Amino acid sequence: MKKIISVLCLSAFLTPVAMAASPDFPHLEVSGKGEVFVVPDMAQFSVDVVESKATAEKAKQAADKAVTGFLARLEVQGVKRENINSGNIRLTPEYRYPKGKKPELVGYKATRNITVTVMDLNKLNGYLDKALGEGINRINHIELKTSKEKQYIEAARLEAIKDANEKAASLAKGFGTSVKGVWKVSYHNNYSQPVLMRSMAMDSAANTAESYQDNQMVISDSVSVVYRLN
User: Fold this and answer.
1) In the 8-state DSSP scheme, what is residue 134?
2) 156 and which of 79, 96, 209, 221 could share a cystine (Cβ 3.0–4.6 Å)?
């Protein structure tokens, strides 16, 4: 765990409007921040199934066939259905634009996006190998995550509280006084920064097999506190 010193905000620098809402007793405003660096143990990746055919029906059938094959390959590898999200199909016409002539309809493109959550990071590369097949030639992105996010958020929150308390005590001591207690706490939303891997074409999956390890994601939390001073 690593604490990051944040900027101190003293009430002496508040605007007149803010001062009107400030407490009428000696006080100190401090922001605390905590960060936890985590080694990911799970991942999420998405692929696009894209098929172009002469008719919308044939494009849809081709896309559905590719998706069915992909889901079957994942099932063989032990991926649970609840960890797969296959988006709705999108059909768009495709035109040719001859010079000086009206656009000509040449077919339809069917697109489906599938997102897969990988609970065991060690199996990620195997899933990617299975993903790249008929109808799927590109992996959009790979996002490394942690299965213990709630636990690490709590740890980051405690670090933020500790950071605020330590800074308040130090500042109060420096001005010849001490902290009497907490008057107000403003909690900020926590922030989880997953590791985003680069997109991959069909022939590049093998080259990234070792790149999922030794990555770190950052989970941070922050709090603003108004302390009473003696």
Assistant:
1) T
2) 221
User: Is CATH 3.40.1260.20 correct for 2-39+148-229?
Assistant: no
User: How far is Cα 154 from Cα 192, in angstroms, rounded to an integer?
Assistant: 12
Six-digit token pair at 19? 């001062």
| 224 three-class SS | strand
Question: 205 pLDDT exceeds 90?
Answer: no
State both tokens at 115: 């997102």
Per DSSP, 119 falls in state S
HSE-up (13 A, CA, CB side) for residue 192:
17
CA distance 186 to 18: 15
Residues paired with 44 in a beta bridge: 117, 143
Q: What is the pLDDT of residues 43-53, one digit of tens each?
A: 999 998 899 99
**Confidence (pTM):** 0.69
Q: Which runs of consecutive H residues, i.e. helices, occur in 132-216?
A: 149-174
Q: Specify the CATH superfamily of domain 42-145.
A: Protein of unknown function (DUF541), domain 2 (3.30.70.2970)
| Residue found by looking up tokens 């009428």 in the block | 24
Looking at the chain, the whole-number percentage of residues with pLDDT higher than 90 is: 54
- Element counts in the chain: helices (H) and strands (E): 4, 11
Residue-wise pLDDT for 82-109, tens only, equals 999 987 889 999 999 999 889 999 999 9
Q: Quickly count: other Cβ atoms within 10 Å of residue 19's Cβ.
A: 11
How many Å apart are CA 199 and CA 61, to the nearest integer?
A: 26
